[in-house]
Design a protein that fits this description.
By secondary structure, this protein is an alpha/beta fold. It folds into two domains: 5-143, Rossmann fold; 162-298, Rossmann fold (3-Layer(aba) Sandwich), CATH 3.40.50.12370. Helix content is 36%, strand content 22%. It is built from nine helices and 13 strands. Strands 1, 2, 3, 4, 5, 6, 7, 8, 9, 10 and 13 form an eleven-stranded mixed β-sheet that branches. A two-stranded antiparallel ribbon has the order 11-12. Helix 4 runs parallel beside helix 5 and helix 8 crosses helix 9 (280-286). The protein is globular and about 70 Å long. InterPro entries: Rossmann-like_a/b/a_fold, Universal_stress_UspA, UspA. It comes from Streptomyces lycii. Residues 1-136, 162-297 form the UspA domain.
């Protein structure tokens, strides 16, 4: 059975933009796209707006419109739509069983960079077992563009670089694999960033050129290069650059991801005492970046 790309929609502009992004990614990966809408009837909250049957029909109409728009824009893409009933978080989690990727939309934070993530999106993000991409939108959606405009080929069009935020002191093969595979399918370069906490005496020194200055810089650079070497061999057609940065991890990642097509960061796939979490660095990055962000669970 072929693995799917899944996107969740809810009738909003944000989810429409996410659906269009997911459609293009499905074509790059040669995967079918499954568009789902989680419908949960909450009488106390929704009865004042409309009855259950009316809201169900509206949800079905929204799904049909999204499916028709995507099929019209990407005629070679296999698109299925499905209305799923039940608690929204668990329904989305169930829909991603065996999926290759989940794509969700998010509204931009006013005139600032970053994502505004609701409770459903945040809970899903923290618990899903597959990578999740958050797509930011502010005003219009990609599927609402006029049909007369030329649609670029999402498979062959050149795309901006993929930026990978990596902590090489911990095992993260799933994260690295996703970044290389995504760069390969996009025919885009990959830029790997490792943020290293250097001793105070080195914290404000400029980065030395080459190996002229030994010490923490050289050690961190060697470690990053060694970690990526097997993946360079597996993906020889992906151009790779490496960066060892110092300072605040969030600021370093944001600086490196400026103008990127996708920022890839990790999430520990484990449950804390207070429940599943996405981690402070990833959470901060989501609230300050402008480009789409992929969050990859790893061991």
């Amino acid at each position: 059975m072929r693995r799917l790309v899944v996107t969740g929609v809810d009738g909003s502009c944000e989810s429409m933009a996410a659906a269009d992004w997911a459609a293009q990614e499905s074509l790059r990966r040669d995967r079918p796209l499954r568009v789902v809408r989680a419908f949960e009837w909450l009488p106390r909250q929704e009865a004042v707006l409309a009855d259950r049957d009316t809201l169900t029909r509206q949800a079905q109409d929204d799904l049909r419109e999204v499916g028709e728009a995507l099929r019209g824009r990407y005629p070679s893409l296999c698109v299925t739509t499905e209305l799923l009933r039940g608690p929204k978080v668990q329904t989305l989690l169930d829909a991603t069983g065996g999926a290759e990727l989940l794509v969700l939309g998010s509204r931009g934070l006013g005139g600032f960079a970053g994502f505004l993530i609701g409770s459903v999106g945040l809970a899903t993000l923290a618990r899903t077992q597959c990578p999740v991409v958050l797509v930011r939108t502010v005003e219009s959606t990609a599927v609402e563009r006029t049909p007369e405009l030329e649609v670029p080929d999402p498979v062959t069009s050149g795309l901006p670089q993929v930026v990978l935020g990596i902590d090489v002191r911990r095992s993260c093969d799933e994260l690295i694999r996703f970044a290389f595979e995504t760069a390969a399918t996009r025919r885009a370069p990959l830029h790997a960033v490792h943020v290293r906490d250097l001793p105070p005496m080195n914290a404000f020194e400029p980065r030395p050129e080459g190996d002229a200055v030994p010490g923490p810089w050289a050690e961190a650079t060697r470690l990053l290069t060694a970690t990526l070497r097997p993946w360079r061999d597996k993906f020889p057609d992906v151009p790779v650059t490496e960066e060892v940065a110092t300072g605040k991890p969030v600021r370093s990642l944001l600086n490196s991801a400026s103008g990127a097509g996708l920022l890839v960061v990790g999430r520990r796939a484990r449950r804390a005492r207070l429940g599943a979490r996405i981690g402070p660095v990833t959470h901060a990055v989501l609230h300050r970046t402008r480009c789409p962000v992929a969050i990859v669970p790893h061991s």
